[in-house]
## 1
Amino acid sequence: MTCPDCTTAAERDWYGYTSQCKACDARALSRGPDFDRVRRAGKLDARYQRALDQIGLTHKEVRAAFDGDRVNRKDAA
Ligand SMILES: [Zn+2]
């Protein structure tokens, strides 16, 4: 489920991705404008749902990637 890029991203700011790694796909989407928009709105929309479907992910998986991403925890530095 995870790879060295995922492990590193949980520990420090990291922008590496491994192809074929689902958790990397989830992290990439969680850093994009579609996830940012639905997170601010507090609800999913059709465009974001299409992005999920294209990659084959669920919102839960992307949300988990967001929560585990060190980039999003600058306040904890
Ligand atoms: Zn990965």
## 2
Amino acid sequence: MTPHNNKAIPLLDLQAQYDSIASELEAAALGIMRSGQFIMGEAVASFESDIAAYLGVEHALGCASGSDALLLALMALEIGPGDAVITSPFTFFATGGAIARLGATPVFMDIRPADFNLDPTGIRRFLEGSDTRYQALGVRPEQVKAIIPVHLYGQMADMEEFLAISKEFSIPLVEDAAQAIGAKQAFSDGRVVGAGIEGDFGCFSFFPSKNLGAFGDGGLITVRDPELAEKVRVLRLHGSKPKYYHQMVGINSRLDALQAAILGVKLKHLDSWSSARQEKAAVYNRLFAEAGLVSEAPSCWEQTCGGDCAWHGKGVVLPAETVAANGGSHIYHQYTIRIQNRDTLAQGLSEAGIGNSVYYPLCLHQQECFSSLGYAGVEELCPHAVCAAKQALSLPIYPELCEADQRRVVETIASLLA
Ligand SMILES: Cc1ncc(COP(=O)(O)O)c(C=O)c1O
């Protein structure tokens, strides 16, 4: 029960964001309603050009959702039955779902425990043929036609290493940047690279809870190659070019003009919102440290963990910024801690009126719909992901969150752990 003197602290407060820019949003929405132009048209073109400039890319194409962005990218690569696509098992379902929907085989490889992102080292070993464990699943390296690194929680997977693998093995990269718009990584040559920019495709989601969220579904694909960009442009319109003439079977996946207008307004605020999230993350880090709750990373991260973590630390493991140094940035789509007895703690927080969420409680390779892939017998393939699914807990984070509320979150965790 929420004590009467304590208001609830939501996981995310979209109302506060709306209130702060209501007049801008309402004017934009009214403009579309009065224009009568609801599909494609000027609002979509103008948003696509604004976001392309923001991201620093040539081709940025709106579509109906982040899920469709992934699907369209894989369709443009002509992924299909007999092909395999490597991705993370610790992500939202859409990442694996897009692969399976095209009749290809998702190959789930383990994550790096420090940042929850797909670990490139295991992938390299597999592609070199020195990890034969996937043979038990009937997957061979030469079947791999794409890799989907996921930039989870707002922090990039190690794109420098993924790009090296992509080049070495001639395998395209489809970045799942759904949670990471504006996130950056500094490469060893000093270049600072944005999420979804260097891969062959970048896939973004404008689901309302994202850092840049629409008033409904929406997505975006960035594409490096002009021919592939044109292919996506055609595929999102049922594969028709010119209209009513189809050389390809595409899908109906467009960004609504209304959403494009809303997103165009919000884009102007995105960087300040992401900076505010970074400040909130730093405040949490300080408050957890002051409360003496910070636990070292479990030692089993260095080894092969059995999926049932040997770590029995008492406190919380704070989110690690693995690629945020030297001008890189974590945009804190989520502020995700690790903790033992996570479900009990989550329930305690909910009872205290504090929003929290588990992203994600069950890895993709353990989902019923993927049982035919055969991972049940080879759990040791993704032990760090299995472990993360038991320990990860996301806490309230949004630009308008105040320090007093963050203090209450930390104090409540302290009392639940005591
Ligand atoms: C990592 C990841 N991939 C893909 C998606 C799919 O995006 P959408 O919900 O816009 O379809 C999401 C959205 O939640 C996501 O978090």
## 3
Amino acid sequence: MRIVPISEDECRELLQRVPFGRLGCALNDQPYVVPIDFAYEPEHLFVFSTAGKKVEWMRQNPKVCVQVDEIGNWSNWTSVIVTGTFLELREPQYTGQREHAREQLAQSSKWWRIPLAERREPIEDLAIEPVFFRIDITGMSGIRSIPEAE
Ligand SMILES: Cc1cc2nc3c(=O)[nH]c(=O)nc-3n(C[C@H](O)[C@H](O)[C@H](O)COP(=O)(O)OP(=O)(O)OC[C@H]3O[C@@H](n4cnc5c(N)ncnc54)[C@H](O)[C@@H]3O)c2cc1C
């Protein structure tokens, strides 16, 4: 098996195809990684979340990364890492972007569809704060494996 870099176009195709990854953020030299769903657009990833540790951390340190992969088997896989900046889509400043994120995520995010998420937003239950955020992409890289026979 060989491991080779892929082009930026190939990275973007993977982000389009696989709307799920692992978000990495950090605070006070401590990394934190969680699985998330996202909706991809050329310069952004949109995410729906409830308030909690990752959002608190990103509010303090907006530098993040997201790793996305497609794994056929141990010798057939592709992996992309995006670096970017967290931007919380608060109302009323980002009402338009929030609605846009909602529409995009409705098509791709299973997380968005869980009853808790769907129920809490309309009734504005303060126990769970719905958060929409955008990751403004600042860079990306990708690699893939090539089985020896190819
Ligand atoms: C397939 C999949 C898709 C998901 N998509 C989304 C999404 O689109 N948006 C979203 O907000 N969340 C998503 N989640 C859940 C997400 O990974 C977090 O569990 C959740 O968002 C809570 O994160 P938080 O930082 O707010 O934790 P908090 O609720 O603040 O919890 C804090 C504590 O719980 C622990 N904890 C939190 N999450 C996890 C975890 N996943 N595994 C182990 N320990 C954990 C932390 O270490 C921390 O100590 C998804 C999870 C899965 C498995």
